[in-house]
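**User:** I keep going back and forth on a fold encoding question. It is easy to fool oneself when nobody else works the same problem. Could you pick a protein and write out its sequence and tokenised fold? Could you put it straight underneath, so I can go through it closely?

**Assistant:**
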Amino acid sequence: MLTKNATQTKQLGARLAKRLRGGEILALYGELGAGKTTLVQGLARGLGIKKWVTSPTFILLNVFKISHRGRIKYFIHVDAYRLKQASEALEIGLSDYLGRPDTVVVIEWAEKLEEVLKNYKVKKIKLKTLSAAKRVLIL
């Protein structure tokens, strides 16, 4: 899927969110600036989250409670960029959320957590930069 600007990337994320039923783990792959956080912002908006979503680079994990989306009660946003070892994700409590049927987990820089994620069903999303504004998302 091709997006031509950040707005379209967010819109795509919002459309993808409508397909989520809970229990999903979305693993985002892409270089710095590829649009991972922008996609996450769209996913959050599509799930009805009104708070501004920023990448949790320094705190590593953000938990958003969803009270109006039926089965999905939590949206977990992880940024693994600063992690040196996959085990660090377990230390911050990521395993408490993985695979829960009432939770959607989205992980930026998922390649750093492949050891942790190998025991779960994961939907991989690759983002590639085509130009300053254009991105292609491979689902």
